[in-house]
Write a structure and sequence with these properties.
CATH class: Mainly Beta
CATH superfamily: Lipoprotein localisation LolA/LolB/LppX
Radius of gyration: 20 Å
Number of strands: 13
Distance between the termini: 51 Å
Strand order of the largest sheet: 6-5-4-3-2-1-13-12-11-10-9-8-7
Shape: globular
Low-confidence stretches: 1-20, 248-253
Structural class: alpha+beta
Number of helices: 4
CATH topology: outer membrane lipoprotein receptor (LolB), chain A
Strand content: over 45%
Number of domains: 1
Largest sheet: 13 strands, antiparallel
CATH architecture: Clam
Amino acid sequence: MRRAVLVLLVISSFSIVARTQTADELVAKNLQAKGGIDKIKAIKSTRYTARLDLGGGFTAKASQENMRPSQVRETFAIQGMTAVQAYDGSAGWQIQPFQGHKDPELMGEDDLRDMLLDSDFDGALVDYKEKGNTIEFLGHDIVDGDDALRLKVTLKNGDIVYYYLDPDTFLEIRKEIQQFIRGSVRERIVDLGSYKPVSGVMYPFSIAVGSKSNPGSQTFTVEKMEVNVSIDAADFALPASLKQAPKSAAEKK
């Protein structure tokens, strides 16, 4: 009996090691498919502009700028008004004219969690151990009727992102995001496609975002993607009117 238990423990240990190795192998294949780690890290800044389809015939203009190590600025323009959300590496701020807020204000915890995800310049898979993330390979799954390889990425803050990789190209075709905020779970789905190379690195030119109950409710079609562009750090920085304002509890963390 003891021998049988020992054998099972040994087999289980080898299984865990194999699973970990498989996860690392898939991450390596994903990064290679994108262009390789050297080309990925050679990109220091990005800027894209996109058409945003909101459904019902409504469209808007969207843009996003990222700069190493962890700065991001996103804009959304429709009907002559432009909303702004930005993160300078330590604090997040926004201008939300559609909600009646035309002056800059500090970002709340809910919105800040999204900006922290978007500010990870290379994404959660690159240098994941150094970032405090963990990765598990969960086997095969189905995405829109097609086979996919499923990775579970647990971020340092406890949030979870499930990556679905195309088994032929090893590029992401879907991400399922679970964020744990004040005892509740916020979930959404991001579908990725129409990859194109820019300076040797593959970027998705089609991005559909929605809740689990309404996936793809917002579709971004990238019209222009630029890399290693000159971006003024002041574009991300807290506006002067906010520099003396007390930080929210989320930002203090």
